[in-house]
Amino acid sequence: MTFEIIIQIVLLGIALSMDAFAVSVTDGLTYTDIDKKKSFFIAFVFGFMQALMPLIGFFLVEGIARIVGESGGANAGKIMSDIVSWIAFCLLLFIGGKMLIEGIKDLKKPEEEKELKKFSVKEVLYFGFATAIDALGTGVALHSGLSNSNTIWLHVVIIMVITFTISLIGLFLGNRIVKLLKGKFEITAIIGGCILIILAIWIILSHYLGI
Hints:
Blueprint: H1 3-30, H2 36-68, H3 70-107, H4 121-132, H5 136-146, H6 152-180, H7 185-209
Helix pairs in contact: 1-2, 1-4, 1-6, 1-7, 2-3, 2-4, 2-5, 2-6, 3-4, 3-5, 3-7
């Protein structure tokens, strides 16, 4: 494993973590009871999921390639990449749309009727899965030359650490924006919903257009 490959993995980790960064900003914007412990939990979940999905993708392609050959593994990897991109698109579009609609509705409600959004472990896990599932396709790229059965473990740890760090930055930024908006959580819900919808569209565009 060369220094050049490590640099490529670091850059890949940064690219993969952008989804988690966007959702971390959204969590920082919308959760009204966020604290240090919850922030670290969110960042850990995002980092873990972002490392787990490429690992699963890598060994799926590895297994298929051993059964039907390298060309069969590559074809299966491409199909898998297409499917998971659309799954990620649908999940993030649904969550973002729901958040956007709820934020708009809250704008019309009196202050005493507004419900503040609380931290939810279930929702964090859902977000972690939704933002990381498209990284299954990254396992195909890693299998194509960057990684092997021994180095893949180090590579996903690098991806996890990068995503964890960038997610913490996103949470901090989201929290700072809330303070600038003076706790107008209906506005932050609208902003968060828009971020998720844009992210969903970006996943599809980047997958098919390579941007």
